[in-house]
Amino acid sequence: MKAQWISIPVDDQARALKFYTDRLGFIPKVDVPVGEDFRWLTVVSPEDPDGVEVVLEPKGHPAADAYTKALAADGIPINQFAVADVQAEYERLTKLGVTFTQEPTSMGPVTTAVLDDTVGNLIQLVHQDEDTEPDLL
Q1: SS3 of 5, please?
Q2: DSSP assignment of 28-61, as one string?
Q3: Which pLDDT does position 61 carry in this prediction?
Q4: Rounded-to-integer distance, Cα 73 and Cα 128, Å
Q5: Could you tell me if 121 and 78 are in contact, meaning their C-beta atoms sit under 8 angstroms apart?
Q6: Distances from the Cα of 47 to the Cαs of 4, 38, 61, 79, 84, in angstroms?
Q7: Which of 4, 69, 87, 124 is 20 to 30 A (C-alpha) from 56?
Q8: What are the residues facing 12 on neighbouring strands?
Q9: Considering the domain 5-132 in this protein, what is its CATH number?
Q10: Which residues contact 75 (CB under 8 A, 6 or more apart)?
């Protein structure tokens, strides 16, 4: 078993696609119409185009909107993306007009920053020092 897709509920799939590609740097993977109003829409990291796909999932269920609004109101990211250098990504994305709710913050072996994806979610950027990854087994 392996993780192949992660879903991020979004307010607007077209706006989400533009943000996740033009700002965050993901590349489109699948774009298939599903009914009249929605698409099976995924993006992937250019560093791993055959890796995990991010599904830009339309908020079709009433609970999705309440869930994402509650998370955002409490400042909780819906997902995390690994980056090599949080400070560099913060600076690059800020220049592109991305809004951050948390600037880069070091917490021992982990550095994080939190951004607003413009489609109803907070996303956390994370870098964890390789030397300090916990041995869970």
Answers
A1: strand
A2: EEEEEEETTTEEEEEEE-TT-TTS-EEEEEE--S
A3: 87
A4: 26
A5: yes
A6: 15, 27, 32, 18, 12
A7: 87
A8: none
A9: 3.10.180.10
A10: 101, 102, 114, 122
Residue-range domain boundaries for the chain: 5-132
pTM over 0.85: yes
- The residue type of 39 is R
d(CA 106, CA 65): 31
Cβ partners under 8 Å of residue 74, min gap 6: none
Q: What is the pLDDT of residues 52-69, one digit of tens each?
A: 999 999 998 889 999 999
Instruction: Say how far apart CA 35 and CA 33 lie, in whole Å.
Output: 6
Contact 78, 119 (CB under 8 A): no
Whole-angstrom Cα distance, residue 104 to residue 114? Answer: 8
pLDDT tens-digit series, residues 71-97: 999 999 999 999 999 999 999 999 999
Q: Is the pLDDT assigned to residue 132 strictly greater than 80?
A: no
